[in-house]
Structure formats: structure tokens, C-alpha cells
Amino acid sequence: MHHARSRHVPTGRPHWFMRTLGLGVGLALVISASLQATPVAVSPAHQAATVHWPDVMVQLHGGGKAFIVDPETDQVLTTLDTCQGGTLGATTPDASKVYVSCAGEGETEIIVIDLAAREVTGRVTTGNRPKHAIFSPDGQWLGVNHWGLDAGKLRHTFITTADDEIAHNLELEVTGTAVGVTSMHNA
């Protein structure tokens, strides 16, 4: 017997959705206690972007593989070599590329996968253990934070997605002795 799953949404707090999941792109919906959709104002910068869904899924494995999967058949179409610790990826808003962060010990690259070609088309060396990647609303920029320090500094790298080149590194001095992971969830 199959039972449908339900998701608990806290009542009396209509902005829970926005605080938990973020604003998103385009017209965001807030789920109210009565489960009615309520439109929320979105800035013009966010309205300008259009999100497209890729026709394939990408399953990332920390052992250094990306599996391109057909969501209709659940068949693996292609297996690509990526990097150790490559478990987080970010898809461009136009669904043309996936950027894989190589967060394993000693890793320094972002892997670029072209979804139409279904192949790795680039490797961008960004710094010590790149982790969380996030796109600008128009998809022209990719920001990446890093788990590890580079010469005692915490690095945030900005990549232009048109040519997959580093446009700028923002480096923040870290005082004291860093132990373990130095940055989380701040791309």
C-alpha cells in the first residue's frame, strides 16, 4: 500500500517559507497556514532572470564522478570524471552548464560540465577546497567560497560564466590559527 508523503509547514508564520528557502527567482510564493498561494513582491533584478530546467539530471559522487541521467528512464547516459569531494554542483539559470565544486582535501578546482554536450569542458583553479557556488540572477557570474585558506586568507572567487575565467578574488585576512573547515554556507 502506498502512502502519500506530506510536508509540515508551521502555521501562523507565513514568511517561514521565505526565511527557510530564500527569495528565489521570479514570482515567489508564500505558503500560508491555509495553504493558499500568496504572491510576494520581487526586485526587478530578480524578475529579469528566467530559470530553465535541464533535460537531464546530474548526480554527483564524492569519489570523482558525475552521472548524467535521463529523468524519463532513470538510465545513466554518460559518466564523467570530476574530482574528489565533488558533491556540490550549481546549474546555470539557462540550464546550459553545471559547475562542480571540488571540496576534497588538496583540491583546488571547479569542474565545468556542458549539459548539451554532456562532457567536462573546463577546469578552473580557484583556491583551496572550493565549496558552495551561487549564480547572479542573470547567470553571468558565479561566486564560490572555499573551505580552506590560501596563504592565511579566506577566498571568495567570482567567475564569468561566458568564458569560465576568474574575474576577481576577494581575500579576507584570517587572524589566529585556523583549525579544520574555515568557511561554510556563505557563497
Could you characterize the architecture of this molecule?
By secondary structure, this protein is mostly beta strands. It folds into two domains: 48 residues, no CATH class; 117 residues, Methylamine Dehydrogenase, Chain H (7 Propeller). It contains two helices and 13 strands. Strand 4 and strand 5 form a beta hairpin. The radius of gyration is 19 Å and the shape is globular. The protein starts with 15 loop residues before the first helix and ends in a 14-residue tail after the last strand. The N terminus is likely disordered.
Question: Can you give keywords for this protein?
Answer:
single chain; 187 residues; mainly beta; 2 domains; four-stranded antiparallel β-sheet; 43% strand; disordered N terminus
Strand and helix map with partners:
Blueprint (H helix, E strand, L loop, with lengths): L15 H6 L6 E4 L5 E4 L3 H4 L9 E5 L3 E6 L4 E7 L6 E4 L5 E5 L7 E6 L4 E7 L4 E6 L5 E10 L2 E8 L4 E9 L14
Antiparallel strand pairs: 1-2, 3-4, 4-5, 6-7, 7-8, 8-9, 10-11, 11-12, 12-13
User: Using only CA atoms, what is the Rg?
Assistant: 19 Å
Q: Provide mean pLDDT, rounded.
A: 77
- Percent strand equals 35-45%
Instruction: Tell me the domain tally.
Output: 2
Topology order in helix (H) and strand (E) letters:
HEEHEEEEEEEEEEE
Low-confidence segments, given as residue ranges, are 1-38
CATH class identity of the largest domain: Mainly Beta
**In CATH, what is the homologous superfamily of the largest domain?**
YVTN repeat-like/Quinoprotein amine dehydrogenase
Fraction in helix = under 10%
Strand order of the largest sheet: 6-7-8-9
Number of strands: 13
- Architecture (CATH level 2) name of the largest domain: 7 Propeller
Distance between the termini: 43 Å
H/I helix tally: 2
Structural class: mainly beta
Largest sheet, described in full? 4 strands, antiparallel
CATH topology annotation of the largest domain: Methylamine Dehydrogenase, Chain H
Shape type:
globular
